[in-house]
Amino acid sequence: MKRKRRWLMSIVSLLVLVSALVLAVSFRYFYKRELLPWLPPNQSLWSWRADGLERAPQALFDFLQYKDSDRSRKKLIAMTFDDGPYPLYTPLLLDILKHYKVKATFFVVGIHVREFPALARKIVAEGHEIANHTNRHRRERDLSQEELRGEILGCEQAIFDVTGERPRCFRPAGGFLTEEGILTVQNLGYSSCNATVNPGDWWQRDPDMLIRSSYRGRSREGVTLMHSGALGIVRALPGYINALKAKGFDFVTMSELGRQVGRPLPDLPQRTHIPTPSTEGPSPGLGSPIPEADDEYAP
Q1: How many CA atoms, within 13 angstroms, populate the side-chain half-sphere of residue 253?
Q2: What residue spans define the domains of the chain?
Q3: CB atoms within 10 A of CB 299
Q4: Which of 90, 120, 129, 212 minimizes the number of CB atoms within 10 Å of its CB?
Q5: Model's pTM, two decimal places?
Q6: CA dihedral 40, 43, 45, 46 (to 10 degrees)
Q7: DSSP string covering 103-148, please?
Q8: 10 Å Cβ neighbour count for 120?
Q9: Share of residues in the chain with pLDDT > 90 (%)
Q10: Which of the 8 DSSP states describes residue 53?
């Protein structure tokens, strides 16, 4: 009886030891994955490591829940910036992207392109993709389909007049389109491009919280939604880029992402006539508009 009990205890102890070893190895892997390869000046080395320790269980849980078995595909992220260009934050964002050798996609507003043409040209000159975000940042719910068409074409014409580029991507103001609106966008030859990752940079001012919102690996491709007029993302962007690089992501533009996943974006058709866009309604002004409760990207 005693011998059986000893054998049973030995087997249980061995199973516990093996389980603990497997858990320790996986925990160590995800702890390393969650550590950011940078140290903010207001953090000690210990607090930095404690942050990684705190996030490791959630990273392990995410991996078990959303595991992607296709390891042959690259991990790709398209960083996008809405609403600009703006005279203060857009140059800072461009400097950071240039320093880290990262290309992004800027969804611009037509009236801002005409107001700050040098910044629009700088976006294109530095190898980033420029895309359509309506002429005056007016939401579809406030427009007829003909007015929505005018908003899209007005921004397209502004981009072409200033940069000579013809954008292929469109993102609606507020991130929402009805089925009728989707058809309007498609009939104009655009691909409607929303986001899969939304760190909430228009309201979140804490850089560390924004960085913690970085992609957790639920898919091997993603699109992050950021804003050209939000101070929070300017402060967080270096750490955000490093966090995504540490997770193994390569940075691409929206068009490149489409090519990589086998859905290349078509070129815009040639226009015979673009109507003069309406100047009615309030100007969006400087700074990213605060999202409203029924916006797709509202917190």
Answers
A1: 20
A2: 25-37+50-67, 75-260
A3: 10
A4: 212
A5: 0.76
A6: -140
A7: --EEEE-HHHHHHSHHHHHHHHHTT-EEEE--SS---GGGS-HHHH
A8: 26
A9: 29
A10: H
State how far Cα 181 lies from the chain centre.
23
User: For the segment 128-148, what is each residue's pLDDT rounded down to a tens digit?
Assistant: 999 999 999 988 888 899 999
HSE, side-chain direction, 13 A CA sphere, residue 113: 31
Task: Give the catalytic positions in this structure.
Answer: 82, 227
Check: CB of residue 102 under 8 Å from CB of residue 79. yes
Q: Is residue 139 within 8 Å of 171, Cβ to Cβ? A: no
Per-residue DSSP letter, 81: E
Length of the chain: 299
> What is the amino acid identity at position 60?
L
Q: How far apart are CA 120 and CA 71, in angstroms?
A: 38
User: Do residues 40 and 51 touch, judged by C-beta distance below 8 A?
Assistant: no
CB atoms within 10 A of CB 296: 14
The answer to whether the beta carbons of residues 295 and 176 sit under 8 Å apart is: yes
Residue 197, pLDDT > 70, answer yes
Looking at the domain 75-260, which fold is it? TIM Barrel (3.20.20)
3-state percent helix, strand, coil for the chain, nearest multiple of 5: 50, 10, 40
Q: Which amino acid is at 254?
A: M
